[in-house]
């Protein structure tokens, strides 16, 4: 099968969308399918020459990719799978479908708000977004929560397929504490350093605790607004080996975001038998279940109490860690692609 995966701002290791596309692409290729990732020159991180990736020019302001339409019309793909709402890639892909009539799948990674100002988002939803949700042959949600939201937007042909995790690549290795000079036990935050990730509440929550908070992730200009604190370490972006050793050696992960459309770092930490503390928002409660503790966004006291509870109760931490590992196994990429191919084949039969 010749498949095109369309995504804005692709990077194989940075961002949930990029890692999702990378994992299912590699598994599809392993099974003998011909997969091309079509993305933009805009990327959340640096990239080198990539095999099987086509990067098209996009306008700087709105990240519109006019040549995506030309590319899809001039190439013959058996099936096109587009990712990411709200962006203009799904709209352009649906427009190409009007002319070329190729089978089209859409995984929106939908969430009810974003970085666009509210009036612009509403305008997008009523125009480009509405069109992009109605034209595909099939829509895939990554959680039941997302499916319910999409149902309210009028989407009918929809199934839930979880975000993928390549469990056999997540090795237990050591070296993070030594490399970064961490003397005490540490808890972990993984994500971009920006306002909605909740670090402005997490940092005060660990003040005075006998623990180091290791913050792993790229600074998007928000670090300078955060309080300076002796027991907080910012590592910046790290290699995959460093990230794996951070998961291996940490006590648990804390993700106090305002909103997560999924939160793949939760699943990664859970696969290392680590409990998680996260906010009670969006699909997060359905992911965490018995694998950790939930708090309300911006509640510093509740965040601090939850951190102290897991630090002081070894039995609870181990129990939640075992639950976390078991829950993580359903996200393995092989299971995800098995379900994805059922939908691909169903859509192809109707062509």
Keywords, separated by commas or semicolons:
351 residues, 41% helix, Rossmann fold, three-stranded parallel beta sheet, 13 helices
Spell out the CATH superfamily of the largest domain. Answer: Glycogen Phosphorylase B
The CATH class assignment of the largest domain is Alpha Beta
CATH architecture field of the largest domain: 3-Layer(aba) Sandwich
Count of discrete structural domains: 2
* Alpha-beta classification: alpha/beta
Could you tell me the radius of gyration in angstroms? Answer: 21 Å
Average pLDDT taken over every residue: 94
Q: Output the CATH topology of the largest domain.
A: Rossmann fold
Order of helices and strands: EHEEHEHEHEHEHEHEEHEHEHEHHH
Strand line-up across the major sheet:
3-2-1-4-5-6-7
H/I helix tally: 13
**Biggest sheet layout:** 7 strands, parallel
Strand content: 15-25%
| End-to-end distance | 14 Å
How would you name the oligomeric state of the polypeptide chains in this document?
Answer: single chain
Q: Helix share of residues?
A: 40-55%
* E-strand count: 13
Low-confidence stretches: none
Please characterize this protein's 3D structure:
This protein has 351 residues and is an alpha/beta fold. It folds into two domains: 2-164 and 332-349, Rossmann fold (3-Layer(aba) Sandwich), CATH 3.40.50; 167-329, Rossmann fold. It is 41% helix and 17% strand. The protein has helices at 16-30, 66-74, 88-100, 118-134, 144-152, 176-180, 199-205, 240-249, 264-271, 284-288, 300-312, 314-328, 333-349; strands at 2-6, 34-40, 53-56, 79-83, 104-107, 138-141, 158-160, 186-190, 212-216, 232-236, 253-255, 276-279, 292-295. The strands form three sheets. Strands 3-2-1-4-5-6-7 form a seven-stranded parallel β-sheet, with helices on both faces. A three-stranded parallel β-sheet has the order 8-9-10, covered by helices on one side. Strand 5 (104-107), helix 4 (118-134) and strand 6 form a beta-alpha-beta unit. Helix 2 (66-74) runs parallel beside helix 3 (88-100) and helix 9 (264-271) crosses helix 12. The two termini are 14 Å apart. The model has no long low-confidence stretch (mean pLDDT 94).
């Amino acid at each position: 099968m010749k498949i095109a995966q369309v995504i804005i701002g692709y990077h194989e290791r940075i961002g949930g969308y990029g890692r999702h596309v990378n994992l299912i692409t590699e598994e599809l290729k392993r099974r003998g399918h011909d997969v091309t990732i079509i993305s933009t020159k805009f990327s959340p991180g640096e990239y080198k020459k990539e095999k099987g990736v086509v990067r098209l020019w996009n306008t700087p302001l709105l990240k519109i990719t006019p040549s995506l339409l030309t590319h899809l019309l001039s190439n013959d793909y058996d099936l096109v799978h587009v990712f990411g709402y709200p962006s203009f890639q799904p709209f352009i892909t649906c427009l190409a479908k009007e002319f070329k009539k190729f089978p089209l799948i859409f995984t929106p990674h939908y969430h009810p708000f974003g970085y666009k100002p509210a009036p612009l988002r509403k305008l997008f939803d009523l125009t480009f977004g509405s069109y992009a949700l109605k034209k595909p042959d099939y829509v895939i949600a990554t959680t039941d929560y997302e499916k319910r939201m999409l149902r309210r937007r009028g989407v009918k042909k929809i199934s839930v397929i979880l975000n993928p995790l390549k469990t056999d690549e997540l090795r237990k290795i050591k070296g993070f504490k030594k490399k970064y000079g961490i003397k005490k036990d540490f808890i972990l935050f993984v994500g971009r350093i920006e306002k909605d990730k909740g670090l402005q509440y997490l940092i005060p929550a660990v003040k005075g605790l006998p623990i180091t908070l290791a913050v792993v992730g790229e600074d998007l200009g928000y670090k300078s607004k955060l309080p300076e604190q002796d027991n907080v370490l910012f590592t910046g972006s790290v290699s995959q080996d460093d990230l794996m050793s951070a998961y291996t050696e940490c006590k648990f992960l804390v993700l106090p975001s305002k909103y997560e459309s999924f939160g793949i770092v939760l699943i990664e930490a859970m696969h290392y038998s680590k409990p998680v503390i996260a906010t009670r928002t969006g699909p997060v409660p359905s992911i965490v279940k018995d694998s950790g503790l939930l708090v309300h966004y911006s509640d510093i006291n509740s965040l601090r109490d939850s951190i102290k509870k897991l630090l002081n109760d070894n039995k609870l931490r181990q129990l939640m860690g075992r639950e976390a590992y078991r829950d993580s196994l359903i996200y393995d990429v092989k299971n995800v692609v098995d379900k994805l191919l059922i939908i691909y084949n169903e859509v192809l039969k109707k062509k």
